[in-house]
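Is zinc ion placement plausible here? Inputs below.
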Amino acid sequence: MMTCARWLEELIDRALDRPASAALSAHLATCAGCAAALADLRARADQLDADVRTLVVREPSSNLRSRVLAGIESGPVLFTWAWRTRTAMVGAVLIASIVLVTYDVDALKNERAQSTATASAGAALSHWRAPTDALLHDK
Ligand SMILES: [Zn+2]
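Reply from A.M.:
I modeled the complex. Tokens:
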């Protein structure tokens, strides 16, 4: 069944017990699709109201109080298994990070030392003169 798109918002308002305009009332008298849509929307609104009433009236479970108290009495959260596991994992990650950073710094120092040695060898080569060259210029 098709609902006329033009009337959809007003149909929703009507389903939520807002008064219908004269134009909508006239349309509903002639359009089976919109009349059916209004009936469906009203049914959904009624179901929603019933569900909300059920939620509001519902009591908490009878053992909620004892479960909360047992949780409180089981001791501080600091010494739970989950806390210990989390702490161990954070410690392992921290140690791994320190090892990696240390390794990277050493690798960086070695790389720098090698590039310095290469540069000084290059500098030494740039001053090199062939023996014949030296003999020609000295005279
Ligand atoms: Zn219609």
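Short version: The pocket of zinc ion is lined by residues 4, 7, 27, 31, 33-34 (CB under 6 Å).
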